[in-house]
Amino acid sequence: MSEKLPANAVLVETALRALGAEGEIIVLPEKAPTAATAAAQVGCEVGAIANSLIFDADGAPLLVLTSGAHRVDVELIARTAGVLKVRRATPEFVRAATGQPIGGVAPVGHPAPVRTLVDNWLSKHEVVWAAGGHPLTVFPTTFDELVRITGGTPVDVE
Q1: Where are the alpha helices (DSSP H) in the chain?
Q2: What are the CA-CA distances from residue 129 to residues 3, 43, 89, 149 (Å)?
Q3: Do 10 and 1 form a contact (C-beta atoms < 8 A)?
Q4: For residues 144 and 16, is the Cβ–Cβ distance under 8 A?
Q5: What is the pLDDT of residues 4-28, one digit of tens each?
């Protein structure tokens, strides 16, 4: 594990190793507030960025790993998840559910498991980039690995 990683990224890296994930967390030169800026920094298509979006689904956290090329249809996600209402979570809700800040939420490394939906569109990319627990960190993975390490359900998000 790298000594240079932020504390949250070290926790994510530990979780990735425990889950048998292959990718190494890297530190970006600058924050990537959008999928486009993340894609530019790692040199991939915007659709290969796995945005980690935490929603409040009837009071429970729901992580949607969506392609950077998509916008999540919250009504579709609510029906898919079998809940009445899905809404964007507050920063406090996100931190409580994941232990990580918005802009850096990783698919794993949370204090407790978070129900996860994985955008089918990500399967179109050989390599997918996901956040590493901090706004400056990402790691390469695959659609299949994301589904496996999160226990996620592949779905259409739009």
Answers
A1: 7-18, 35-42, 74-81, 91-98, 143-150
A2: 21, 10, 22, 14
A3: yes
A4: no
A5: 899 999 999 999 999 999 999 999 9
